[in-house]
Amino acid sequence: LCCGTNAESPLLQCVLTGRWTNDLGSNMTIEAVNKAGNFAGSYHTAVTSTTNEIQLSPLQGSQHRTNEKSQPTFGFTVNWSFSDSITVFVGQCFVDKEGREVLKTMWLLRSHVDGIRDDWKATRVGTNVFTRLQPQK
Q: Residues of the signal sequence (predicted)?
């Protein structure tokens, strides 16, 4: 590949479609991105703060569609099937210097609370790094 000591390779395109895993062991599948930049998929988390059984959860998202951008920005929402909470992720799809696709994300998790007095503890923030689970065919 190109470019010696560069941190990333701008010549290769990062594609969201496919199967991904993150630094916590959670897995996600992103279906095809349509012409408008919208996509759907599923998320299977490896971590939870509830005692409920973890279930596959749906996700909906959007990618910034610009032909000149090979490393697009994106966002998606996961509606957790096993709890009354929602997580929104934002990030960018990068190609690293070895040619591997990497999704760098930041998320907000909103959990249900019983009243406004508990609002202060209802939102969490964090980061995840996703790598492709299997090569795209």
A: none
